[in-house]
Amino acid sequence: MKRTNMILSLLLALTLTLSLTACGGSSPEQPGKDGEPGKKYLIGISQYGEHGSLDNCRTGFLQGLEEAGLKEDVDFEVHYQNAGFDDNIATQIGATFSAENVDMMVAIATPSATACFAAAEDKDIPVVFTAITDPMGAKLDSGNITGTSDVLPVEGQLKLIRDLQPHAKTIGIIYTTSEANSVYSVGVYEELAAPAGFTIETVGVTAQSEVTQAADTLLSRGVDCISNLTDNTVVGVLPAILEKTNEAGVPVYGSEVEQMRLGCVAGAGLDYVKLGIQTGQMAAKVLRGEARCQDLPYEVIENYDLYLNPEALNAMGLAVPEDVAAVAVDVTK
């Protein structure tokens, strides 16, 4: 009788264990869902293309996770994919991450974010984005998605241009007509230019092969300078633009630190490593179950910096006012 009772007890314990496992019970060997101890998260990172700004976002994102106490290969693994500025590949990447049942999709730039969000929706996988100028316009401001915006400090840029070129009247801008971020930024420039005493000349492109010709068009219109956006298509061939503008003696202003390092004279812009860090810290909260994406409104980086490239400024014969030099960052140091 005692032996029978012992067998029944063992069977009951085994049944209970199997029941708990089926219902999602967690243990160090069988991790539970988000926020539970022992979970090793799989993060899919989709980067729209490869250039300094977007690379810095990814670097900063991983740094942000580490600063939040999550270590790569210990607390999380990364599946990184690069779309090569191809929307179709960005869509394929999102589908791949969904099939892998990643714990989170991280999207760098708008096309990647749009693709990931569409792929994640059916499985309700959280999506965290960065390097998106207008999340609301891209319809990425509600649902299981959040992140950081790189909206440009246009007013600061116009002031900087006025400080360095007191007599400038016309600013040229090259932008991709299909890139929502760029269309939004051009609208802001056009709205703020007149009160600052400028007119804006724009040339829209549809492919990277058209960008240098667009630069020629702006130069032929006699623009006093060009202000470069964070347009992925344009930034990808920025050195070719600078080759033309340097020869013509027309300054180019950048929108983030890497553009000044490439040879833009100056810029009121963002540090994308800092933006990535901010994004990583938001993602850590979601992974740990401390917050849901739905409860975290997208964030805008609060402060921008002034960046100067003294060599490029000297080549253009531009003097820097003392008050600007006192607060600006020299990118050559």
Explain this structure:
The chain has 333 residues and is an alpha/beta fold. 44% of the residues lie in helices and 18% in strands. It contains 13 helices and 13 strands. The strands form 3 sheets. Strands 2-1-3-4-5-11 form a 6-stranded parallel sheet, with helices on both faces. Strands 7-6-8-9 form a 4-stranded parallel sheet, with helices on both faces. Strands 10-12-13 form a 3-stranded mixed sheet. The longest helix is centred in the N-terminal third of the chain and has 21 residues. It starts with a helix and ends with a strand.
Topology:
Elements: H1 2-22, E1 41-47, H2 52-67, E2 76-82, H3 87-99, E3 104-108, H4 110-120, E4 127-132, E5 145-149, H5 154-164, E6 170-176, H6 180-193, E7 199-205, H7 211-220, E8 225-227, H8 232-235, H9 238-248, E9 252-253, H10 257-262, E10 266-269, H11 272-287, E11 299-300, E12 305-308, H12 310-316, H13 322-327, E13 329-330
Helix pairs in contact: 2-11, 3-4, 7-9
